[in-house]
Q: What sequence folds into this?
């Protein structure tokens, strides 16, 4: 499903990709802290020396006289932190010799949400909140909400979440790399030099066992379906600890290595299991049971079967010269496994036996940490997005429930639209839920800002983790993207947009009070459409020159003021929203029709929808124009055709067509039959 979503949104921005090619692979140079910056970070005076360390975990050592007073590292360099904009986000993190965060300093960002609505002082206070955090605390305590540990800032969940994640990962990786956190003592976590696959094999960093098809056929003799014989690999298994940077950093690359190491707690280590061949060392049962029961780590009388919580998926190896492999897995090993003592990595294979029962085979390789990699003490929280999804289970369930109900509405639209009262009250209840639950409670308002951020992330390094940080927004975008394939843009604009719901509900109230509606002439109506498309193209184009200026222009959206901030904002913004809502009392969904850049962005791929769910009759637009005059957003032209770029799928036209008391065609048919 994620591939489909990404494909749809890629089509949205494809025409701009060539013009933006200059942004591909954008990076930043980490600003090296000089003596003045180091003195500011640590709050000391006098002669300060800053020494660069590239070995192991890269960073800087701060020395006063002959005493080391602390260490500094960059979140961009260590964790590769990329913000919601898809561009680098860099924070300098300083820790002292007691493994406590001294201070964190935001150095660089291009975040859309940080530039508007939240002040520099807000972010400074947020970053300062990490001061004093004890990095020797157990991993689960670091991951869980803690008194004094800043949570993400409301209205900037993704951006501040990335900052939080980068600070925690970088600080803990730095502390472990400098031997300040007692993790797996005896492992050399400082030594690093570039090495290829053959170098790691030669030093014994990875142990190997290859079981051929002949070996499997012999061991699994008696199986109901015999294993075919041959010289090919049944399982070619490699295993080894990645904690030494000489191994992990070369094998996985700096960012994946830092992410894996930062997920460890005190005394834990990380094992890489790499395999190719017919047999999988993971299998598929773990997705159901949560246990990798094909795999076991055995040391003396201790036998560990990894669980899903211990698993880190790796897509590909970064090291030069690596063979073609089928699966790459990282597993966190608990403190019961001593990394300085040999242990077995054991993979089992099982087949139904012809005589009943099962025949089994065990393939194992013995690993022992090479002497050249022994010496000293890695590690920190699992990905932030996983923690947030756990903490927002209720919100996720509510949104998923609403999306499920909406899906049922559209699949059963024929039955619903044939019952006008059911449609009317059902739509009213859903719009109220969208406004109060999705909008004002869950802050589930999509924005053109997110479209721009997505475009830039595609061009500069797309990461699902960044967008997964906000579950509500991610679910809405996923559903909207997938829904466009079936129904077009109206799946979001007509049902899931809180501000759209607010406009429609207010207009319903206005009509109940007798406020006369203004019918915009068709020629003028179609020309006013240009406004929203111009806003969209201008915001997107300007963002390639200046994200800040683009986001200033994006304030044409009233969503932040009306929904996210619930009108608690300075008077010009509130006045702007009130003017739009006032216009909407006379022209239903005035903003949606003529001004919404998000609606314009979503309408571009609207013609890609697979099915045409809205029915028309030959008489529509010829003998009858009732649907045209009653369309919520004027999406039906004088010939009776529905413009998918403008339709919000309110289903009003379908109700009219199915109502024998309203539709002139059905009335005439009834008269003729009588």
A:
């Amino acid at each position: 499903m994620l591939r489909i979503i990404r494909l749809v949104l890629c089509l949205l921005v494809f025409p701009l990709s060539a013009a933006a090619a200059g942004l591909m692979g954008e990076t930043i140079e980490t600003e090296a802290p000089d003596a003045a910056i180091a003195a500011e970070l640590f709050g000391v005076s006098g002669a300060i020396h800053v020494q660069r360390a590239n070995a192991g975990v890269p960073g800087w050592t701060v020395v006063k006289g002959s005493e080391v007073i602390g260490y500094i590292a960059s979140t961009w360099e260590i964790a590769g932190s990329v913000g919601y904009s898809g561009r680098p986000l860099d924070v300098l993190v300083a820790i002292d010799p007691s493994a406590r965060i001294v201070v964190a300093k935001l150095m660089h960002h291009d975040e859309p949400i940080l530039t508007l609505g939240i002040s520099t002082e807000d972010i400074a206070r947020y970053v300062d909140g990490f001061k004093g955090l004890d990095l020797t605390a157990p991993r689960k305590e670091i991951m869980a909400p803690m008194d004094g540990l800043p949570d993400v800032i409301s209205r900037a969940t993704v951006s501040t979440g990335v900052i939080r994640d980068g600070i925690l990962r970088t600080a803990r990786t730095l502390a472990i790399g400098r031997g300040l956190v007692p993790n797996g003592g005896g492992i050399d976590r400082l030594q690093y030099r570039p090495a290829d696959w053959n170098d790691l094999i030669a030093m014994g960093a990875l142990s190997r066992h290859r079981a051929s098809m002949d070996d499997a056929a012999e061991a699994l003799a008696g199986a109901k379906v015999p294993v075919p014989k041959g010289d090919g690999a049944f399982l070619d298994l490699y295993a080894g600890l990645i904690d030494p940077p000489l191994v992990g950093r070369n094998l996985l690359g700096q960012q994946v290595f830092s992410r894996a190491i930062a997920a460890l707690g005190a005394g834990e280590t990380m094992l890489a299991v790499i395999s190719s061949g017919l047999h999988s060392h993971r299998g598929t049962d773990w997705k159901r049971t949560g246990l990798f029961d094909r795999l076991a780590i055995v040391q003396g009388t201790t036998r560990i079967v990894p669980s899903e919580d211990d698993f880190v998926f790796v897509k590909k190896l970064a090291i030069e010269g690596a063979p073609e492999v089928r699966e790459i897995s990282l597993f966190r090993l608990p403190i019961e496994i001593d990394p300085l003592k040999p242990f077995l990595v054991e993979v089992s294979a099982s087949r139904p036996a012809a005589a009943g029962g099962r025949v089994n085979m065990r393939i194992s390789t013995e690993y022992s940490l090479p002497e050249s990699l022994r010496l000293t003490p890695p590690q920190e929280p699992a990905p932030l997005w996983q923690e947030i999804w756990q903490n927002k289970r209720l919100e996720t369930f509510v949104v998923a429930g609403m999306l499920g109900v909406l899906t049922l509405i559209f699949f059963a639209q024929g039955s619903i639209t044939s019952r006008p009262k059911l449609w009317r009250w059902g739509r009213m209840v859903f719009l109220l839920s969208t406004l109060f639950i999705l909008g004002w409670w869950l802050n589930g308002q999509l924005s053109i800002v997110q479209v721009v951020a997505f475009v830039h992330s595609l061009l500069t390094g797309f990461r699902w983790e960044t967008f997964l940080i906000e579950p509500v927004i991610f679910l809405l975008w996923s559903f909207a993207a997938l829904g466009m394939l079936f129904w077009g843009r109206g799946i979001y604009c007509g049902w899931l947009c809180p501000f759209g719901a607010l406009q429609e509900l207010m207009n319903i109230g206005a009509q109940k009070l007798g406020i006369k509606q203004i019918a915009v002439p068709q020629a003028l109506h179609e020309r006013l459409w240009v406004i929203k498309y111009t806003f969209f193209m201008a915001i997107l184009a300007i963002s390639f020159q200046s994200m800040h200026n683009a986001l200033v222009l994006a304030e044409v959206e009233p969503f932040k003021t009306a929904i996210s901030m619930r009108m608690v904002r300075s008077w010009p913004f509130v006045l702007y929203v009130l003017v739009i809502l006032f216009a909407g009392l006379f022209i239903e969904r005035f903003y949606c029709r003529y001004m919404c850049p998000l609606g314009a962005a979503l309408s571009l791929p609207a013609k890609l929808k697979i099915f045409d769910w809205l029915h028309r009759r030959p008489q529509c637009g010829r003998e009858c124009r009732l649907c045209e005059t009653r369309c919520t957003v004027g999406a039906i032209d004088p010939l009776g055709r529905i413009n998918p770029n403008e339709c919000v799928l309110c289903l009003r036209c379908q109700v009219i067509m199915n109502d024998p008391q309203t539709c002139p065609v059905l009335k005439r048919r009834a008269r003729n039959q009588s």
User: Anything to note?
Assistant: The first helix runs from residue 2 to 17.
